[in-house]
Amino acid sequence: MTIEEFEHLSSSSKIPDYFLGVDGGGTSCRAAVSDRSGAILGRAQAGAANITTDPDGALQTILQVCRQALEHAGLAQDLELYPAYLGLAGSMTGQAGERLKPLLPFSFSEVRSDGVIALEGALGPRDGMIAILGTGSLFMARQGSELTSLGGRGFLLGDHGGGARLGRALLEECLLACDGLRPFTPLLEKTLAGFGNGLSGVISFAKSSPPSAFATYAADLFSSAGQGDEAAIQILSEAAHLINLSLDKIRFDGCDALCLLGGLSRSYDSWIAPHHRSLLKEPQGDGLSGAISLAIRTFG
Amino acid sequence: MTIEEFEHLSSSSKIPDYFLGVDGGGTSCRAAVSDRSGAILGRAQAGAANITTDPDGALQTILQVCRQALEHAGLAQDLELYPAYLGLAGSMTGQAGERLKPLLPFSFSEVRSDGVIALEGALGPRDGMIAILGTGSLFMARQGSELTSLGGRGFLLGDHGGGARLGRALLEECLLACDGLRPFTPLLEKTLAGFGNGLSGVISFAKSSPPSAFATYAADLFSSAGQGDEAAIQILSEAAHLINLSLDKIRFDGCDALCLLGGLSRSYDSWIAPHHRSLLKEPQGDGLSGAISLAIRTFG
């Protein structure tokens, strides 16, 4: 099909033939293009697209990755021909998403959080809840047209269930143990030993590291807790308490599905309270498939 | 006295006639020069001297403020004529103090933490403990020649009793209350109302503010706790618990003096456990007077 044929078809039917979906996060930005049935015709991936910290760079990355997905599908790369549904990290807080929307060249566009597309991807059309437990933590529920979101808010003040906060809590306990205000446990000793110059190494690391670096300690915490390490159990109990409180808060009557997403989803499995754990389902798809599905539902 | 006379006197007696003391902190750097009796002959003050974050700038500030103090005293400004005792913020952690020492032009120099000179200033020659409760928190004890230090470690992982951590805990509780995971209290409502655009205002503030900005919430916390605000009482109870644990840890048999120093010393007074509160004494002097006193004791 030539561009002329495509344009004719598009304008005559008023229903687009192709749909773009974008999953833009702090570490990578992915795009896909599908037909009306949802079949993926092309995909592409690029680096980070953080519209809060780097709006100009994020815009360029989004446009580039969409053009690449179209190229991969063998379709015309004129972005104004296609509707796009974007799920972007950071678009829940502040007005970054609102500022971005008028700058987008797509025929139609919708900008929502990465949580929204993750929920659609995980649950498909059904109602239910998701908990995204990765570097940060975010909770969402959908009941019919009603969407509830809770948590997130970043490393310093929020994201209590995320790996970065877990790692920070672990390093904080290490320092308190050095001061004799907490008993040393095997995990605290092991963690401290990992810093060549001990205490001052921990402080230097904390000053210079992004949240994702703190999150690398999460795996140690879960395995140590499994071996009865009291510091690990204490830190994870507090995080799990807030996770379960958050699920209590967003859960609606009749909710029968909960998907755990993100890098810590398997690790947290056994820490989820029984009344929520009984709802656990495997996610149907990822955020990018959710973006495509929402693009078709919104613009199709 | 001319410089020639001074130099002759210094070299013949081997005991310096004049002593420099420096109190270098994250917000200001002060110097004083005294005679052998400790009488202050000249003083000067300049901006921050943080040897950890800005070693070159800190060195220049220290030398400049010493020259100004000598000028104020009407003494020759050749720094190599005088011994100096420096108490510098940040010199406890890392090797910043060790790196600085060979760069100093003084006839003799000693570089210690600001805590060391604060202790000497507060207690004079007697043994005892100090708690520095300002933006951060630090605890020290001296028994004879033995000096014990505990706490500090900075905003992200330490300084649990300091105003910056108190403010951060308050903002964190505000976000949890917004998510319905904590009950709103009058203080949480008031704090949130202070941010024009609510929740996203809190997050923006947290991302862009230094610890000292977080510390501005400490006063509200203490006054609200006095009015029975449960969030304030909870936050201060946890901080006070670690303060009292820290004092338990550094306290030695026969200790009969405790000085509370820093901007929050009056506010925390009633939160100190009775067995420590019974030791409370008014500080004799400040960190700069402590630096002078240590200069005379060390080099005199």
Main attributes?
Nucleotidyltransferase, domain 5, Euk-type_GlcNAc_Kinase (chains A, B), homodimer, ATPase_BadF (chains A, B), about 300 residues, 13 helices, Glucosamine kinase (chains A, B), alpha/beta, 4-stranded mixed sheet, about 45% helix, kinase activity (chains A, B), 2 domains, 5-stranded mixed sheet
Secondary-structure blueprint:
Two copies of one chain form a homodimer.
Chain A: H1 3-13, E1 18-24, E2 29-35, E3 40-46, H2 55-73, E4 83-88, H3 96-100, E5 108-113, H4 114-123, E6 128-133, E7 137-143, E8 146-151, H5 163-178, H6 186-193, H7 198-208, H8 211-214, H9 218-226, H10 230-250, E9 258-261, H11 265-268, H12 274-277, H13 287-299
Parallel strand pairs in A: 1-4, 4-5, 6-9
Antiparallel strand pairs in A: 1-2, 2-3, 6-7, 7-8
Helix pairs in contact in A: 4-13, 5-6, 5-10, 9-10
Describe the 3D structure.
Chains A, B: GO terms for molecular function: kinase activity. Chains A, B: Pfam families: BcrAD_BadFG. The structure is a homodimer of 300-residue chains. Chain A is α/β, with parallel strands linked by helices. Chain A folds into 2 domains: 3-124 and 284-299, ATPase, nucleotide binding domain (Nucleotidyltransferase, domain 5); 163-277, ATPase, nucleotide binding domain (Nucleotidyltransferase, domain 5, 2-Layer Sandwich). Chain A is built from 13 helices and 9 strands. In chain A, strands 3-2-1-4-5 form a 5-stranded mixed beta sheet. Chain A has a 4-stranded mixed beta sheet with strand order 8-7-6-9, sandwiched between helices. Chains A and B meet through helix 5, helix 7 and helix 10 of A and helix 5, helix 7 and helix 10 of B.
